[in-house]
Amino acid sequence: MISHRLWRFFDQAASCDIPEVHRLAETVETWWPAIEAGLITGYSNARSEGYNRLGKHEGRNAFGFRNPETRNAAYAGACTRQHRRKTAIICHEMPG
What we know:
Elements (H helix, E strand, L loop, with lengths): L1 H13 L4 H23 L4 H16 L6 H11 L2 H13 L3
């Protein structure tokens, strides 16, 4: 089932004239073993990637922190569920 759909994807990408579609097909081909493992097992590193993104975002916000302990506390605080819930509520309540 997966191999048939993958073949159709590559076939359609090959017949397309858009360069971005060709790059997407090359990326899928390069990463196919990892993509297939995720599809079959259902496991993902999305949670760790999400925490990594939060940490990097907080690092950019905390650029001026001089004390490493304060910076690390800001990283840890940004990755807690309670902090994310408060941020979501604030963003949800914002007019827009």
